[in-house]
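pinned: reference chain
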Amino acid sequence: MYALLHRAVVLTCLALVSPPALASGAPQSGGGGAQPTAPPVDALVERALARAPSLAARHARVDAARAAIQAAGTLPNPTIEFEYRDFNFPRYTIGSEPMSMAGASIRQDLLSKGRRAAQRQVAEAEIGQRRAEQDVVATDLATEVRVQYARLFALDRERDTLADASQLVAMLEATAASRYAAGQSDQASVLRVQLEQTQIGQRLIDIATERYGVQTALNRLTNDPPDTPVGTVAALPADTPLPDTAARPQPDAAGAREVVVRQRDVDLAGRQVDAAREELRPSWSVGGGLYWQGGLDRTVVFNVGVDLPIRKDQKQRPLIAAAEQELHAAQLDLQDSIADVRARIARLTVEWRAAGQQIDRYRTAILPQNSAAFDATRSSYLAGRGDFASVLEEFRRWIEVRIDLASREADRYAARAKLEALMGPSGNS
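pinned: its structure tokens
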């Protein structure tokens, strides 16, 4: 009679160990009540773009370059000189000597049309460069928000899986204790399942610590206090096919924002070379003065000046050579950036596709096979043909499979976010 009662208890407990959730592979709630849901990732991206100080600083630098363009090509300030001429000094001879007079003159240095245009083009190129840098900061910010969001998703799925596992371990412990009391198992089974429960609790604490670190990183991106709670990430946005540009043997990197920045560097360096060459042209100046010679006598002076290019080889030509080297360096940086972006696009494309293939394999094969293996091991244990260690091993694999699936889903989403950031606006789907 006792044996029949014990067998009924074991059957009941092990039946509870394999609820419908095991067959479907979907982790249930951790039993701690409904958790607040995190806002959609796009809402967090918009919040980060609107509030991040780093992006606001880039906006300010663009505004500074726009303000500076008003001064580009402006003539230098004129120079005024006051003059006193006295023939036969220290005698005062103004009015008695034609060479003695007092007055003032003004001189204005001129800039050639080409020189002024070159200065304005340099200023405009600086605006383009800073705008490109601003776009890179905005893109990096949005991408990092999405990556941290994916990390939260993986941690939340692992936490929920372990919370469910904790309840199942409690049922396993009751089964092991019941069989040990009936003399059908040893005490090691009870100790093993207790150790499993302890390790699950340990991992849950680690997850809470890791999640707090990701939360603070995400709040840093959105410029919120570190302790601002971020709800549970229950799901990631649906995946979509990649643009055709990513499938090419040589992905198109021209639209990548990093490449655009390097191209703007080349443009700016080229404008600076043009401006340096314009400095070889003659510099002219005009001036005039009015002098008093005593009584009603007045003298008016007009003059035109031009600089003497006697130091161009020592001054201007080295500056032109330096500007040309900067242009060459910028062109090399552009080529390096294109190669780097192409390599990263190719690598991330492979990672994204591999993650998708593995996710499909998990959902269509590994999860059902794992559930079937767990059920078979459980049945063998009930029938007395298996041992508790096998049940525990399959249970651990049940946990690992579901955690690994969530991790691969997060990896695929993060790879997709990085790809879209690299491919630029034309590459976004």
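why pinned: The chain has one domain: 2-427. The domain at 2-427 is CATH 1.20.1600.10 (Outer membrane efflux proteins (OEP)).
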